[in-house]
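Entry 14. Ran structure prediction on the chain below.
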Amino acid sequence: MIDNYPQIQVIATGSSSFEFANEIKEPLTGRKFEHFLFPLSFSELVDNSGPLEEKRLRNHRLIFGSYPEVLNNPGIEQKILSPLADSYLYKDILVWKSIKKPQALEKLLKALAFQIGSEVSYHELAQLSGLDSHTVENYIDILQKAFIVYKVLGLYRNMRNELKKSKKIYFFDNGIRNAIIANFNMPENRNDNGALWENYLFSERLKYTHYNNIFLNRYFWRSKTKQEIDLIEEREGKLFAYEMKWNPNANYRFPKAFKESYPEHETKIVSSDNYDQFLGI
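Output, structure tokens:
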């Protein structure tokens, strides 16, 4: 296992073990405690360099992520991320689960990387990667357990206009995502700014809620008429709806259908003007 990647340390009374992707190598006796070690979070970086400096480096984080090795070696981020993605994603995982189709896994990862922020279809991913839908689902489960990607399901409460069984896939770190598609251009020179911004905010919000023991269910919302909301957090007996906008001047109104169906809710647009509050600063 590469120490530079997210991992879980499991501590239990009477015995201890390291758990990688929920695969327990030894039986644990008594109560266990899981400690998730993510890439460095926005709040940790703010504590180190201050909020103004960290916000100045926002675009850098969108492209290169926040793994320690990357942050400690400015100027050679691409040189670090490219082989790191290759050696970990296409070697260690293949050995770990005895995956026999490395080229198919590579195609699947690239397809996921190009679809961040969009709903994914296992059937479509199967066609793109040359796998069957069941294998795609298993591979995504493995990638989630390996802390490469994580899955967010659509909110469905029997509202006839909502989509059932919908899902999105995000990456734990923007740098790994960009390494997979071999694109390290700055935001002003690319057309996926919205997707990068959404992935960054999702992963940073995940760190924030975990480290601050905020217990919640996480969804997105989309209707059959293609109205959507990026993030829904279910906590404290109500729904908190967030829409991520790269452009702070973007015009957006939360769908009336959502507001009427879920009266116990709060809404907020998260942009470059206020994302620090969204991430606990």
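DSSP finds twelve helices and ten strands in the chain. Will compare against last week's run tomorrow.
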